[in-house]
Prior knowledge:
Blueprint: E1 15-19, E2 23-28, E3 34-39, E4 43-51, E5 54-61, E6 73-75, E7 78-80, E8 82-86, E9 95-104, H1 107-142, H2 148-151
Antiparallel strand pairs: 1-2, 2-3, 4-5, 5-9, 6-7, 8-9
Amino acid sequence: RLHQLPAQLTQEHDALISLSAYNVKVxxxxxxDIILRVPIHxxxxxxxxxxxxxxLVLLKTAQDPGISxxxxxxxxxxxxxxSGSLSECGTGPVESCCxxxxxxxxxxxxxxxxxxxGQVFQIVYTESTIDFLDRAIFDGASTPTxxxxxxxxx
Length: 154
């Protein structure tokens, strides 16, 4: 809550992560109060970083994942949320984003979280693709006059 990541993880920082096809939810382990909810479609990137003895999973998100971008919270055996502006070489437009920082107890937990997020993305992407193709096929089947010009020359 000091807008910094604590140097040592304690039970006070312990939280649970819930993944669904719609969002990533972080809740306190003891009280089940929601710390943070990030819609899946707002997540732009997921990364694993090992810094000294810390194992961090970072989620690059849209500007506002449900709480103030300047807030810092604790989550998943660790902690969460900072924001900033990114710019390449100081030129061009500045891309504003938030980083959700989740510290895990070990490398295996971080890799498992990254893997699960990858599976959720794959499921959502596949479902969206199927829905898109279903709509395209349905629209094509319901308006056959659209394609008559292709076959009229035969």
